[in-house]
Amino acid sequence: MGLVAMSKVLALFLFIGITTGAAVFAAASPSSLENLKQLFSDRYAGVTPDRWGERVPGVRTRLDTDEKVIALTFDACGSAKGNGVDSRLMAFLIREQIPATLFINGRWIDANPELFRQLAANPLFEIANHGMRHKPASITGRSIYGIAGTQNAAEVVDEIELNARKIEAISGVRPKLYRSGTAYYDEIAVRISQELGHEVAGYSLLGDAGATWSAAQVKAALLKAVPGDIALLHMNHPEAGTGAGVIAAIPELQRRGFRFVRMSDYQFK
User: Fold this and answer.
1) Taking the chain (269 residues) in consecutive chunks of 10 residues, what is each chunk's mean pLDDT?
2) What is the reported pTM?
3) Which of 17, 74, 102, 182 is the least buried, fewest Cβ under 10 Å from its Cβ?
4) Can you list the domains of the chain with their CATH numbers?
């Protein structure tokens, strides 16, 4: 067996269980990244996706429960205008012991390394993968909101895997969930995410419309919650109405009997 063929076989062993639909990814050494990219490039060569959006097959949008629980998820998107943090919001969650799932982009980690370490060490928070460069997840370069997506299967691997390894190197825990920049996918990118050991995290409740809503709008959106909702919000825009809206809504939701959980505390729909 030639060296190239042997490397592909070795890479394939990283994906025991893929054929059952429950990929078991063994985090590999950094030197295997090129093998992974080649593996997926070969696997999906010539494949044309036919779905594109926020709710393509495989995207998990709800918790599979009738209990009065809500998963608050907060994106930290990175970029020059997206590297901030709503300190008041995060302090409130910690003080009131409100669990949440934090989808962290690689650029945000680079801009806030010490804060990321603190958040990752706090058991209230589940750290999830928001990609390395905050790109829509596509194998054809599709774009949304003027943001170009990943160009091919190898770039999807880079977007997910590079940030997963960054998170694990700092926190000691490999993330289990992935949400792309913009939360848009084609179905092949979703499949690649699953094969890399990440469930794709969508949402059922739009909480702040990309951190553009006022506090009153955020509060009103959250008060429409039903059991099992996954709320999409942002933690990286202190100038937005997100924090004040969340802080206003949580006590009312608690009075209504709701509890707050991390996404991975429950199975998904």
Assistant:
1) 42 38 43 90 97 98 98 95 96 98 98 98 98 98 96 98 98 98 98 98 98 98 98 98 98 98 97
2) 0.90
3) 17
4) 60-265 (3.20.20.370)
